[in-house]
Specification:
mainly alpha, MetI-like fold, 11 helices
């Protein structure tokens, strides 16, 4: 770890620090016992920040700090679940299609291209409407994951097409290894580095998608997320009521989280480029 930190560029270090900060908030501070922040009139309304309420309270008597912590936790959970499903499914389908070739390759390519060209926003709007305003983090993540695997699959397929003609793949064939075994043991290690970069990018894209739906009023109303927190503050006229911590904290948190993930992705890619150069 010390060697990695010394060789890491400034963007990668900054991205790690910012992202780690949000992970501590979302998966560390989140588990400190507290009252459900979604409940109305738990505290007096419109309190200013204090030691009891670090960011004050909303006009509905909710603690803004714990509402923010819950929103960060749920947004990160959605991003990580979508990124995991999209990366795993996309990499497996892409490697299988590129390596197998023939009819299977054509079928998987058609399915992948179909999901690439389908406009995701109308489908997401329809799916959230069918949920009738109630959903869980898992359900929201699964809806977003429907469109998270197609692009990784197309990109990784080209990698499989170039690797399948190498000598060690032919050696594996002659050794009696099956298609799935060759994909997992021989080709997948070459895709792990790219997969990690795609995982971080997919996390950012998933959080952005959910936040966009929430700000448009299309995210489930019972889901506490950064986007929904902004939407609730806007709907309750937090700006006109000068409740800056209510409307400002989720906006600042979203911007910082996006910046942190962006620095992490670009810094990590530069770090890999530097290692290859060596």
């Amino acid at each position: 770890m010390k060697k990695f930190w010394n060789n890491a560029n400034s963007r990668l270090k900054a991205g790690l620090i910012i992202t780690s900060f949000f992970i501590i908030l979302g998966f560390g501070v989140y588990y400190i016992p507290h009252i459900n922040p979604f409940s109305y009139n738990t505290y007096p309304a419109k309190l200013n920040p204090s030691w009891s309420h670090l960011l004050g309270t909303t006009s509905m008597g909710q603690d803004i700090f714990w509402l923010l912590i819950e929103a960060i936790h749920n947004s990160l959970m959605i991003g990580l679940i979508v990124a995991l499903i999209g990366t795993v499914v996309g990499v497996f389908v892409g490697l299988l299609a590129g390596f197998s070739g023939g009819v299977l390759d054509r079928v998987l390519t058609v399915v992948t291209d179909t999901f690439v060209v389908i406009p995701s926003l109308p489908i997401l709007v329809l799916m959230t409407a069918l949920m009738k305003g109630t959903s869980t983090v898992i359900m929201m993540a699964l809806v977003l994951a429907m469109f998270a695997w197609a692009w990784p699959s197309r990109q990784i397929r080209s990698l499989a097409l170039s690797i399948k003609e190498r000598d060690f793949i032919h050696t594996a064939w002659f050794s009696g290894e099956g298609t799935i075994q060759i994909v997992v043991t021989e080709i997948l290690p070459f895709a792990l580095t790219w997969s990690l970069s795609n995982f971080m990018n997919a996390t950012l894209a998933a959080i952005a998608s959910e936040s966009s739906l929430a700000v448009l009023g299309l995210s489930p109303a019972n889901l506490i997320s950064l986007g929904n927190m902004i939407q609730w503050a806007r709907a309750r006229n937090a700006i006109f009521a000068r409740q800056w911590f209510w409307i400002g904290s989720p906006i600042v948190a979203t911007v910082l989280l996006f910046v942190g993930l962006f620095l992490l992705i670009t810094g990590y890619n530069d770090y890999l480029s530097m290692k290859r150069g060596r």
